[in-house]
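Morning F.,

Quick status update on the modeling queue. The single chain you submitted on Monday has been processed. Sequence for confirmation:
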Amino acid sequence: MLRALIFDVDGTLADTESAHRAAFNYAFSEFGLDWHWDDAQYTALLEISGGKERILHYWRMRQPELRELGAAALQDAVNRLHDLKTAAYGAAVNQGEVALRPGVLTLMEAALSQGLRLAIATTTSPANIAALLRRAMGADWRLHFTAIGDASTAPIKKPHPQVYLQMLAALQLDAAHCLAFEDSGNGLRAATAAGLATLVTPTRYTAHHDFAGAMQVLPSLSAVDVAQLCHWHASARQRGHTTQPALA
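Structure tokens below.
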């Protein structure tokens, strides 16, 4: 029996990556860096989960040895860059530049009305989640979610299953009773490593990823209802489309 839905955020709940890319570029400019991530470069960088990790990865690509900065100074610079980026992204969301993807809110409302629980499993920051969902669902958005896992609670990023394992523990449910929603290859790998059947709705940034092992791959959730989810979920469990949960 399906008892809970666990959602990724960036790319899954909303097609956020264009706004994130613009926010990164704004932060670089404010910080005095001559970096600029175009669409193609940002698409490649999305293979690295986590904003701070992405910045550090790119910096090391640009300057492999980074001899001019010690480890503490480097991390401080990355943190300050990420703070600038987060503020810029939040402003974009508040100005209405980011909206939930088609069908997301309707499906969430239907799931709640039918007694399913909702959770979030993401590598993004709490501030980014709050900015998006406060605008989309109202000031009491947190009340709709039984559990929330994010960059502050799960430091080991996807494709590691840490955040999904944390959410299963918080929900006090076996993976067999839950369904994950993702948009990327790393997200799919994280969810399936936790034993979860997974529905994938790619974006233009992730459409080229390998989604072998997904329960379903759909362009959006606009034509999906809870009855379909329950049917697909039951069929996926019978076919063994998920693996045994990995250890944290």
